[in-house]
Structure formats: structure tokens, C-alpha cells
Design goal:
Elements: E1 2-5, E2 8-13, H1 17-34, H2 42-47, E3 54-56, H3 59-74, H4 84-90, E4 122-126, E5 129-132, H5 141-156, E6 163-167, E7 170-182, E8 190-205, E9 210-211, E10 214-215, E11 218-219, E12 224-225, E13 230-237, H6 240-252, H7 255-265, E14 270-275, E15 280-284, E16 289-294
Antiparallel strand pairs: 1-2, 2-6, 3-5, 4-5, 6-7, 7-8, 8-13, 8-16, 9-10, 11-12, 13-14, 14-15
Protein name: FAD:protein FMN transferase
EC number: 2.7.1.180
Enzyme class: transferase
């Protein structure tokens, strides 16, 4: 089954048709509630809530926030879900599907630029209640896509099945399957083929999803597009949310800093980093994949 959601082509393989239909329904419903670009939805209500007043989050949205905050802390807040206003300032005012012209504000920021220590702009009051302490808007981005794909496994998976969920190149595999990482320069061609078992694979890159001359990956500490010499980062992890976060870290921080941070806080990953000078670096936990073939 194939359909469009979350700015991505979603492909479901291996599960029964009844499960595919239920997954499609839940993924589309999640998009309607959690997309920054849909006016009047649950996320829009939270984004427009007043400061210093309790705000109620629906169960699914609160679960997404809770899991995102755990990963954001592990990422030292270089990746976090509070970047909606920064995305707008950079020109990302509509979804990539809508393809509206972007009003880009030129900005060039070194990946080494650091801001003051990050402070959470919310206070979690109780389960499903938060309070906004300063003006911001949520943009869950890859956190959101990873969350709903991981949730499909939690809700529907049985060990008797081999699944593949492909969400715009971000993969969740159950059982053993072969997956490819697209070449960031020769688009449409696989750079690496891997045999994955019960793993997730996510790719972030500065070679696609651009508005005018800037890419969509922001340094969460500066709020501006990151420039660190990495063109594309692919990461294998246990969950899509973890793989998404780690891939973005490799696109934001200098490579050695990113590797050190992730070795400490998220050690169960394998990575494949393609630099702007066309160098390819691989590393991490090689037990997460069975075989690797590098295309010539």
C-alpha cells in the first residue's frame, strides 16, 4: 500500500491488508492533529495558547511531546520540537507538498556557533497539562514522523510477520530485509545496501527539502540552518525517533562532536555520513546490520 502523508510517500509492506488500512487511517489522523500547517487542529490550538496559562494536550500529542523531550535532552537540545518560529523566520511557512514560494531570509551560520544554555519554554504541570513560559510554536518534524511510525509497530506488530514501513526514506524493518541508502549526489541510486533486522533507518540531508538556497535542518541552539560540511547522514537505531534525532545531530554539529555526543547518550546506533567533499565515513554499532555493500 502507498499513500501520501507528512510530506512523504508512505509505503506499507508485509502486513495484512486490514492492518495496512488501520495504519493508514491512524497515520493520516495523526497528521491532521500534529501538523504545524493545518489551521485549527490540536497542535495549532497549543501553538496559539496564551502564556502562563494551563494548556491541555490530547493523549497522543502529550505522548509525542514526552518522547520528544527525552530525545531532545539526549541531543543537548541541538534538536528539539520548539523550532516552529525559527522555521518560519527561515522561510519555511508552508509544507513542502504545497510548494508555495518561500520568502527566504539569507543567513550563514557556522555549526560551531553556540547560544546560551537552552531553557525549556514550557513547564509540564501534570500528565497532559503544560504551561508556555515564553513565545514559541511546536514543529515536531522528524520527531512526529518517527513517533507515529514507531507507534504502528507498538500497536500492530506480531512476531510472525516481516514488515517494512517506508516513510519518505525513513524505514522501520521487522524481521530481516535489505534496504538501500540513496546517494546524496546521484539521486535515485543507492549508495549503500544493507541487510537490516528489527531496526530503523533514518536519513537527513541538506541536498533535498530546501527553500531557495537554504536547507531545512536548523541548529536548535541558534535557530538557524546548520553548516558543518555534512551533506547527508543516515543512522540505524532501534526506533525511528532515535534514528531521526541522531541523523540530524550529525548534520548540525562538527562530526567529532556529534560522534562523541551520540556515543555517550545514544550508543546503540550505526552511522553513514557523506560529506560535502564526497568523503564517506561509516561507524558505530555494526551489530545493527548484517551485511553492507557499497555501490561502485
Amino acid at each position: 500500500m502507498m499513500f501520501q502523508a507528512m510530506n512523504s510517500k508512505i509505503i506499507l509492506e508485509g502486513m495484512k491488508m486490514e492492518i495496512k488500512e488501520r495504519m493508514k487511517e491512524e497515520i493520516l489522523s495523526f497528521e491532521q492533529n500534529a501538523s504545524r500547517f493545518i489551521k485549527g487542529n490540536s497542535l495549532d490550538f497549543v501553538n496559539n495558547a496564551s502564556l502562563h496559562s494551563p494548556v491541555f494536550l490530547k493523549h497522543e500529542l502529550f505522548d509525542l511531546l514526552k518522547r520528544s523531550l527525552i530525545l531532545a535532552k539526549l541531543a543537548h537540545y541541538y534538536v528539539h520540537p520548539f523550532v516552529g518560529e525559527d522555521m518560519k523566520s527561515a522561510g519555511y511557512v508552508s509544507s513542502f507538498q504545497e510548494r508555495e514560494p518561500f520568502m527566504e531570509k539569507p543567513m550563514t551560520v557556522s555549526s560551531n556557533e553556540r547560544s546560551l544554555p537552552f531553557r525549556l519554554p514550557i513547564e509540564v504541570l501534570t500528565d497532559r497539562w503544560i504551561m508556555k513560559k515564553q513565545h514559541f510554536s511546536f514543529d515536531f518534524g522528524g520527531f512526529g514522523k518517527g513517533f507515529i511510525i514507531d507507534r504502528m509497530k507498538e500497536r500492530f506488530y506480531t512476531k510472525a510477520e516481516n514488515w517494512l514501513i517506508n516513510a519518505g526514506g525513513d524505514l522501520l524493518v521487522t524481521g530481516t530485509m535489505t534496504a538501500g541508502i540513496e546517494h546524496p549526489v546521484y539521486m535515485g541510486q543507492d549508495m549503500i545496501c544493507l541487510q537490516l533486522k528489527d531496526a530503523a533507518l533514518a536519513t537527513s540531508g541538506k541536498n533535498y527539502r530546501k527553500w531557495n538556497n537554504s536547507h531545512h535542518i536548523l541548529n536548535g541552539r541558534t535557530g538557524k540552518p546548520a553548516n558543518n560540511g555534512v551533506l547527508q547522514a543516515s543512522v540505524i537505531a532501534d526506533t525511528v525517533m532515535e534514528a531521526e534525532m541522531a541523523a540530524k545531530i550529525f548534520c548540525i554539529l562538527p562530526f567529532k562532536d556529534a560522534r562523541a555526543l551520540l556515543q555517550k547518550n545514544l550508543p546503540r546506533i550505526a552511522y553513514f555520513i557523506y560529506f560535502e567533499d564526497h568523503q564517506l565515513v561509516t561507524g558505530g554499532n555494526q551489530t545493527l546490520y548484517r551485511e553492507m555493500e557499497v555501490a561502485q
